[in-house]
Amino acid sequence: MPDWVSIAEESAVAADAGATFFVDDIEVAVFRSEGNLFAIEGKCPHKGASLGNGAIDGCAVTCPWHDWKFDLKTGEGLTNPSSPVASLAVRVTGGSIEIDRETLPLKTAASTNSNDGIHRYLVRYGSLGWVGVFGNVDKVECQHRDRVILQTHRGQELGEVLSIPEDLAAQNNSDKPGGEVVRVATSDESKTHAPRSKELTLRLIEECSAVLAESDIDLAIVDGEVLFDNESAVLYFLGDSNPDAGPLVTDIAKLHNLERIELYPFIDPPEPEGGGCGKEGCGGGGCHS
Ligand code: FES
């Protein structure tokens, strides 16, 4: 018998996009493509990327880390048929997206086992100074305070290493990584990103604030950052979320050759499990205000 559980408002998944949610600590990716809603297990079976951040093309999603493709309807592995993901029953009722718990994959021992082959790093990242656990199945040689490139649910960004795998292993750390440590950043990358990000962020804050004010939307944008990949910008606001705000800043993103500008509440920013606030329901796909 189905056991439907509400996971988000219908508007939390934009057209032709995906988003990540957690149900009973299991990562779930929900997509809206060509007017239909799909849900699959959210963790890529290859190395654990969040499929909710993948690019969708019709009924397929491409993993953001190494490009494996999955069928959104069936969960079939299109790149690697021996590695499918679970397809989940999803529906919209009364404006809410619901998932049938009965279709969730069982948690495997591997997902809770600290000896899972992942090298874990504690990293500070983001302009708000979040701290989270990031991992890689291949060891990335780095030291305390090194700058590294991270793959987070928001895109590629710079972080600062606080603990290396040897330190975390001594603490029996088994947190689920919130993303991947991709590589150590070059000193040139570290030096040039911050000023470029700062300059564009200030312009985005000014322009987005003006557009929102023109539409009488009462959000005070107080901070932000342009990610290392130069594709995404995140702006943090004070005030209540407003579903009309996101579409209004889309044109400003295009104007600056960005793929997206995401608006997150300043007090309670959404982060994936294992990183930042780790709050259920606000991880992965971002808060599409
Ligand atoms: S983590 Fe998804 S393809 Fe490698």
Strand numbers in spatial order across the main sheet: 12-11-14-13-15
The biggest beta sheet reads: 5 strands, antiparallel
Unreliable stretches (pLDDT < 50, length at least 5) are 108-114, 269-289
Estimated helix fraction:
10-25%
Helical region count? 4
Description:
The protein has 289 residues and is of the alpha+beta class. The protein folds into three domains: 102 residues, 3-layer Sandwich (Rieske Iron-sulfur Protein), CATH 2.102.10.10; 75 residues, no CATH class; 73 residues, K homology (KH) domain (GMP Synthetase, Chain A, domain 3), CATH 3.30.300. It contains four helices and 18 strands. Helix 3 packs across helix 4. The radius of gyration is 19 Å and the shape is globular. The C terminus is likely disordered. The protein binds FE2/S2 (inorganic) cluster (FES). The site of FE2/S2 (inorganic) cluster has 9 residues, from loops. The site of FE2/S2 (inorganic) cluster (FES) has 9 residues, from loops.
